[in-house]
Specification:
The strands form 8 sheets. Strands 5, 7, 8, 10, 11 and 12 form a 6-stranded antiparallel β-sheet that branches. A two-stranded antiparallel sheet has the order 1-2. Strands 3-14 form a two-stranded antiparallel sheet. Among the domains are: 94 residues, no CATH class; 173 residues, no CATH class; 143 residues, no CATH class; 70 residues, no CATH class. The protein is of the alpha+beta class. The N terminus is likely disordered. The protein starts with 8 loop residues before the first helix and ends with a strand. The chain has 31 helices and 20 strands. This is Planctomycete cytochrome C. InterPro entries: Cyt_c-like_dom, Cyt_c-like_dom_sf, Cyt_c_Planctomycete-type, DUF1549, DUF1553, Galactose-bd-like_sf. Pfam families: PSCyt1, PSCyt2, PSD1. Keywords: Heme, Iron, Metal-binding.
């Protein structure tokens, strides 16, 4: 018999609820799993496709069809033709329907670039059908065109020179030639014949020194080549060429030439830039450091360490510390009156300049383009940019004292006794002054009874006195009504002298024949802007800015006068407290008949003091006795004697090297580049795209700023960093051949060029590292190549294939740089001063009055005859000869100079005052060295072209001299194309 079980209703109810809860939980959990799977699908398959193929044309700043595909909301909102996305309905969603082929026609979208693959289209359809899940708050960004697989981010390949079968044996010796010959053969090109000795020495000497060879050097090298065993393969003897290159590399002018190249790259300029553009007088030690480093062949990895952290690795070693001036060698904005928002923006701009200079010079990457958002083309994120920001955040522009530890200690030892004695004297003088001040305070109540008249008014102040005959009236100012009270900084818009007669006349007016004299603030660029003549012109709109303590009015003749009236803001346009109308405070008025003997007729002694400072000065004057005066004079004399002794020990050098402050606050991404919109916190780190390198790093926020800069420098020069060696090797190649293997030397990213010879570039980068990052071995390797030693002769057939000779079927001719042209003219004239180092000379007149102006010189003296690298290279300072021949403005880094041809260049060489002066000096040199006319023609050709004249040229030269004089001939030589071009 089967028994029936009976459960209480309450138990059944509880059991049912439990089952329902479990079932619902399983359903919710399943939904969560499904949602997570859809989000994963979006992250892996959908988001990257949309970013790579859709967002470039459909984002907030580029809304084609008014479609924004960067957010789910934007897709649902749609554009001109309705929503782009209808969740659950892929075939009704234009996002999918327009991305697949239809009716035998290709997809409508994307209009440009690759269409969706079949796999991508299926994934997009499935995603929409499943509801189009989208990560919360995600905004898609356009995918960079390049990623970590881009050529420049790949490890430097260990390559061997290719086998070259059908080339000249000479082109199989140097690995450089093998790489080049292989490419030439692929394009059906053959290299030129070798250059002759005279062509080669001129090319090599300009290349390494930036100067022409002397006629004696040309003759000697030609003779050496003739006497040295010839190459079996032909061309100049290797041994003679090697000796020439070694001699040139050993010359000190090498550092000047190649240092100039590097100064271009690192935007070295000796003024601050921006609207104020004040000159910097103490950055020249950095220029000398660069020249010295190149001459010493300092390993470039060491140079980079010193550029970024010289003060860290070389503390108290000035010759090392100066290297870190690289960080502050660029322009920076120091505009005043900054509020907090403006100051933050200006600081961000200063950091941006450092980041761009560093990333472009060493990495060949435009990291600066990631300031506001991830880079549009390269795999560089805003986080990378701000990691560099966090690295440099402690660096501040400006000068600081630089000296060795021993020099500091020696100075302290010698000065300490003198400073101790001086401190004691100052304390004694202060005690004496405090006693006087106490007495002065006690006398204030009594003195105040004397101040019966009101204080002066800038709107107009009158002084009346007993009538007196005078031809001269003098105002002497003992203090102003400004806070600092300096007497030599007052202003006057008018000073009147009135006669004592029934109808008084202002006899101080210039129209009455009177003159006003007194020291004025200097304003060379605005002559007379602050002249004392403004005080008696009868007008009130402009002011005399005093630079002294006195104003003298000389009348046209003696007059009987009894009143003066003066002001600094007669029209009341600026107000009593405006800094431009600073007025006299304490003063006295004197008259004279002859300008020698003076009589006081009025003073401010009975007026209320204009400031507390002037009140204190008056009280001190009242209570000071003759004994006090003598005691003060003794204190001052003793202090002056001590100061004279102290001055015998000059201060330690102060160089524009920057200062470095602690970084205490966390650093953040600035959203949209706006310092007021702080995003995620960032840490100092290497580029994320190269995070797989063993040398990659990320520091914690506690690391001091010096450690941050040193870490970056070590990463830049690490053996596994593929960018820095390639960039540097390419720069060296560029300066030898005119164009780099990559012709965008500071952009190895997507928008830059691809290398013409990638294997050769990697081989050069490897050689650079193998030889210890020294440049001279690389110079030698390049200049010994047949590619460098070939002629520059042009061939039409080859030019059809390679017009610019990027493949080096001939040596690419080039025009001399602006500096080379100027130095060459000085050299020919026999006036080039080869003195090295020290403060630079100026080819302009510097004028500073609120803003700086640089006026080019018209007359040039011997002090300007040094090499042009020593010219004080201010920003926005136009120097005609240099500017016309493409000398860059150091407001920006110049990775590759322009080389233009313009009518202005010919006019400058023909008519510029410097060119004409060099023409005159060259004529004098030829007249002195080679009196016969034929000899003068020969010498001029040897100097200018490293060759003698042909018979036709000699005859033409002689005729020109006989018809128009030697200077006309010299002018023709200095205006020739051959002079300023290298073949």
């Amino acid at each position: 018999m089967r028994r029936t079980l009976h459960f209480p209703r309450i138990l059944l109810s509880l059991l049912g609820g439990t089952l329902l809860f479990v079932t619902m939980g399983l359903i919710v959990r399943a939904a969560e799993v499904t949602q997570q799977a859809q989000l994963t699908q979006f992250t892996n398959s959908i988001g990257p496709v949309l970013a790579a193929k859709c967002v470039s044309c459909h984002r907030a700043d580029n809304l084609k069809g008014n479609f924004d595909l960067t957010t789910r909301e934007g897709m649902l909102r749609g554009g001109d033709s309705g929503p782009a996305l209808i969740p659950g309905k892929p075939t009704d969603s234009p996002l999918y329907a327009r991305s697949i082929p239809a009716n035998g026609q290709p997809p409508e979208m994307p209009e440009k670039g690759e269409t969706l693959t079949e796999k991508e289209a299926i994934a997009l359809k499935e995603w929409i059908a499943a509801g189009a899940a989208w990560p919360e708050k995600l905004v898609l960004k356009e995918k960079a065109k390049a990623d970590g697989s881009f050529w420049s981010f790949q490890p430097i390949a260990k390559v061997s020179p290719p086998e070259v079968l059908n080339s000249s044996p000479a082109w199989r010796v140097n690995p450089i030639d093998a790489f080049l010959a292989h490419k030439l053969q692929e394009r059906g090109l053959t290299p030129n014949k070798p250059a002759d000795a005279r062509t080669f020495i001129r090319r090599a000497t300009f290349d390494l020194l930036g100067l022409p060879p002397t006629p004696a050097e040309v003759t000697s090298f030609a003779r050496e080549c003739a006497e040295t065993a010839a190459n079996p393969q032909g061309g100049l003897p290797d041994a003679a060429v090697e000796r020439l290159i070694d001699r040139l590399l050993a010359r000190l002018q090498y550092g000047e030439r190649w240092g100039r190249h590097w100064l271009d790259v690192i935007r070295f300029g000796e003024s601050r830039g921006y609207e104020r553009n004040e000159i910097i007088t103490n950055l020249w030690p950095f220029r000398d450091y660069i020249i010295r480093s190149f001459n010493e062949d300092k390993p470039f990895d060491r140079l980079i360490l010193e550029h970024l952290a010289g003060d860290v690795i070389g503390k108290d070693q000035p010759e090392v510390e100066i290297g870190s001036a690289f960080l502050v060698a660029g322009p920076y904005d120091d505009v005043g009156n900054q509020d907090a928002v403006q100051a933050a923006q200006i600081r961000a701009d200063q950091m941006d300049e450092m980041i761009r200079a560093t990333s472009e010079a060493f990495l060949g990457l435009s990291v600066g383009c990631a300031r506001c958002h991830d880079h549009k083309f390269d795999p560089l994120k805003a986080k990378d940019y701000y990691a560099l920001y966090a690295t440099f955040a402690g660096t501040v522009h400006g000068p600081r004292e630089v000296a060795s530890a021993s020099a500091r200690q020696e100075r302290v030892t010698k000065l300490q006794p003198l400073q101790t004695e001086r401190t004691k004297l100052v304390a004694e003088r202060n005690t004496h002054q405090q006693a006087l001040s106490a007495r002065a305070k006690q006398s204030e109540a009594e003195a105040a009874k004397m101040w019966t008249r009101p204080r002066l008014s800038r709107y107009g102040t009158e002084e009346r006195f007993d009538a007196t005959d005078a031809k001269f009236i003098r105002l002497t100012v003992e203090g102003t009504d400004s806070k600092d009270g300096k007497p030599a900084q007052f202003r006057l818009d008018e000073f009147e002298v009135w006669t004592d007669e029934p109808t008084p006349r202002n006899v101080a007016l210039s129209t009455a024949g009177a003159t006003a004299t007194g020291p004025s603030r200097d304003a060379k660029d605005f002559a007379g802007a602050y002249s004392a003549a403004l005080v008696n012109d009868g007008k009130f709109g402009e002011r005399w800015f005093a630079a002294g303590e006195q104003l003298v009015i000389a009348l046209s003749k003696a007059e009987r006068v009894n009143r003066v009236f003066f002001s600094s803001d007669r029209t009341r346009a600026l107000g009593e407290d405006h800094p431009l109308t600073v007025f006299v405070g304490d003063y006295r008025i004197e008259t004279s008949a002859d300008g020698k003997e003076w009589t006081q007729v009025a003073s401010s002694d009975d007026r209320a003091p204009p400031t507390d400072l002037r009140k204190q000065a008056r009280l001190m004057k009242l209570v000071t006795t003759a004994e006090d005066v003598a005691q003060t004079a003794k204190f001052n004399a003793d202090l002056a004697a001590l100061d004279t002794e102290i001055a015998k020990y000059p201060p330690l050098p102060v160089w524009w090297i920057g200062t470095h402050k602690a970084i205490n606050a966390p650093q953040h991404v600035f959203v949209g580049g706006n310092p007021q919109r702080k995003g995620d916190e960032v840490l100092p780190a290497s580029l994320e795209v190269l995070a797989q390198l063993p040398s990659a790093y990320q520091l914690d926020a506690k690391q001091d700023e010096g450690t941050r800069r040193l870490a970056l420098a070590k990463w830049l020069t690490a053996a596994d960093n593929p960018l820095t060696p390639r960039v540097l090797a390419n720069r060296v190649w560029q300066y030898h051949f005119g164009t780099g293997l990559v012709d965008t030397p500071s952009d190895f990213g997507y928008l830059g060029s691809r290398p013409t010879h990638p294997e050769l570039l990697d081989w050069l980068a490897t050689e650079l590292q193998r030889t210890g990052w020294q440049l001279k071995p690389l110079h030698r390797q390049i200049m010994l190549s047949q590619a460098y030693r070939q002629s520059g002769e042009w061939h039409a057939a080859a030019a059809e294939v390679d017009a610019d000779s990027r493949l080096l079927w001939r040596f690419p001719p080039r025009r001399l740089t602006a500096e080379e042209i100027r130095d060459t003219l000085l050299h020919f004239a026999g006036k080039l001063d080869l003195t090295m180092g020290g403060p630079g000379f100026r080819l302009y007149e510097y004028q500073q009055d609120n803003v700086a102006t640089y006026v080019p010189l018209d007359v040039y003296g011997p002090e300007t005859y040094r090499r042009t690298i020593y010219h004080h290279n201010a920003r926005a300072a136009r120097v005609d000869l240099l500017t016309d021949f493409d000398c860059p403005d150091p407001a920006f880094a110049e990775a590759r100079r322009a080389s233009t041809t313009t009518p202005l260049q010919a006019l400058t060489l023909m008519n510029h005052s410097f060119s004409n002066e060099m023409t005159r000096l060259l004529a004098e040199r030829l007249q002195k060295d080679s009196p016969p006319v034929a000899s003068q023609v020969n010498q001029a050709f040897e100097l200018a072209y490293a060759r003698g004249p042909s018979e036709r040229e000699r005859t033409a030269g002689i005729k020109l001299i006989e018809a128009h004089g030697l200077r006309a001939f010299c002018r023709a030589i200095l205006n020739s194309n051959e002079l300023i071009h290298i073949n």
